[in-house]
Amino acid sequence: MSNPIEQIRGEALQSLASVTDSETLAAWRGKFLGRRGAVGKLFGQIGSLPQAERAAFGQQVNALQAELDAAFDARETLIQSQAMARDLEEGDIDISLPARPRRRGGLHPSTRTHREFQAIWADMGFHVYQSRDVEEDELNFSLLNLPPHHPARDMQDTFYTADSRVLLRTHTSPGQIRAMRELGAGGSKPIRVILPGMCYRQEQITARSEIQFTQVEGLAIGRNIRMSDLKGTIAEFAKRMYSPEAKVRFRASYFPFTEPSMEVDVECFLCGGEGCRVCKYTGWLEIAGSGMVHPTVLRNGGYDPSEWSGFAFGMGPERITMLKHGIQDIRYFWSNDLRFLQQF
Ligand code: PHE
User: Over the range 203-216, which residues count as b (16 or more CB within 10 Å of their CB) and which as e?
Assistant: First the structure.
């Protein structure tokens, strides 16, 4: 075989066929394809050839290099897969070893309900307005039409700070004033928000009442908002939250900051209105307080009540969460007992 290219090709492919481990393979690569390898030497010879032969020779060496590169890759893949098959067979990898479980946190059941609420209200065009937990007496009460010594203040026993003008909000309603003042641009813009958050009341802690709980307040202000808007909006929410067939009913009630005021009931989603222990055999569950924003409250928020109107509501997510999961005692919510929380 006089052609040096053919000679090296034959030699390289023949020795590669007997390579069975990666060290020998690396040595093979050095010998033929390395910088000082056989192919490299062929490239070096180009300069000493007669001018007319150089191009053709160069092309052949290039082709040889490409061929040997490809042969190397194929061999490498083969050796690796053989090694893996051997490892599996010899049992070097113990695939029966149990994995270490990953410890993952979970969402608090109340957070889950809040997220469900938020998704539904967002879909219906309501922004989330984050108000504050530590509030002024004026906003929590006076500006909501509950002046000092108003008897309805007794409905909400209050935690005060050392400064008697500052308290822990007893409901999310003071956020109505903040939202109107901040978003209403001096009573010139409509508003559609929900205000979720923690509320606090100085109460005896029992299975049914806690000193802290969350609420989701809703507020819509516009030029032509009527009671039918409130009813339709809440009915739509109930359909999305409970069931497409959920029926709601409205009962006249009293809140100082709404007029007229209504309590909202939804048909018991556990018994479908038949009557059961959860709904105390009435077929209905109370889900919200609501009403048309009182003119005085509109004025306190910067709106002219002769031109603007609105509705508001307040819902209690814990109650809904309790009903949904059959939780009998509200004290589980904030006592941070992992045995309770890990169930969700
Ligand atoms: N703030 C009232 C409560 O805590 C609920 C409510 C909100 C009623 C908005 C009417 C309008 O009981």
Answer: eeeeeeebebbbbb
